[in-house]
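Methods — Computational structure assignment.
A single polypeptide chain was analysed. Its primary sequence is given first, followed by the predicted tertiary structure written as structure tokens.
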Amino acid sequence: MAGSKSRSYGAQSRELILQAAQALFAERGLHETSMADIARAAGLSRATVFNQFGSKALVLDAITARSLNNYRDLLDRALKDETTATADLLRRLFRQMGHGLEANRAIYREVFGEIRKVSMGLDAEGEAPNLRREALAGLVRLMRRGQSRGEFTAERPAEVLATAFDSLLAGAATHWLHNPQGVPLAELLGDLAEVLLEGISVSTARVDESARI
């Protein structure tokens, strides 16, 4: 019973730390926030914060991991959908990511660049790099399925198509977070999805032309 209470308290304090860190990162930025600041905002001792995470980099890793878990879950749901056209699944994925980033613009504006660094393993600590690899692998599988169905071009490997998708999403999100210009991110990503899909989709006209050759 005592062990159960200890685990519950650990999970509760972890959540308080992450909530405090997200609020402070959104308000001050990552580099202007210290572990002591996070401890005060969370109502916990500095020692408790360090016991939970060990460093500010690992606090950011935990925030990044949440974002990547959501992305991976969206991809998993797309892969389980065996009936919807792959292009429509990608359109939906772009919009869903856009809505998620819009809803948390304050925090992402301050730390999105750092989140990309962490998730790509440029800061090697934590669980985020592995989650990113899992998400990218899911995206590759989705692209490969589109190719196997004859929906997407097979002229480029599925890994290249997935990298193009991922890079377009990240670049557009970074630009929008700092220069929204009154355009909803979900709408912008929807337009960009069409640009990507126009380049990789196998249209009926293209198939007919190929058949004549």
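Note: Residues 1-8, 204-213 have pLDDT under 50 and may be disordered.
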